[in-house]
Amino acid sequence: MENRLVLGGIVHKAPETRHSPAGIPLTRFTLEHRSRQLEAGLEREAYCRIVVVCSGEVLQRQAEQLASGQQVRVSGFIARADNRQGQSLLVLHAHRLQVGIKLEPQAN
What we know:
single chain; mainly beta
C-alpha cells in the first residue's frame, strides 16, 4: 500500500535529538503548514502542525541545522506514535528534507 506524504511549511518547534534503544539518532521537530486548497470547487484554508521524525545520522545532521521560522519541505511517510501520556499521534517520518527553498502558497 502507498504511504507517501510531501508537506511544506515552517519549523514551528526547534529540533531536539534523542537516541533509540538501538542507538539510532532520532531528531524531531514540529512543522506548521498553511495553504489554500481547492475542495469540491471551493477554496479553503488548510492548516496543520505535525511532528517530523528524522532517523539516522544524515537526516539528523540536516535537521539539527533547522531553526524556528525556517521554511522546509519534508518527504516521507506517516505513522502512529504513542506519547508518554498514552495518546496516539500521527507523525511524519522523513526520508528527505529540502531546506532553503521558497514555498509558494498555492491552491491545488
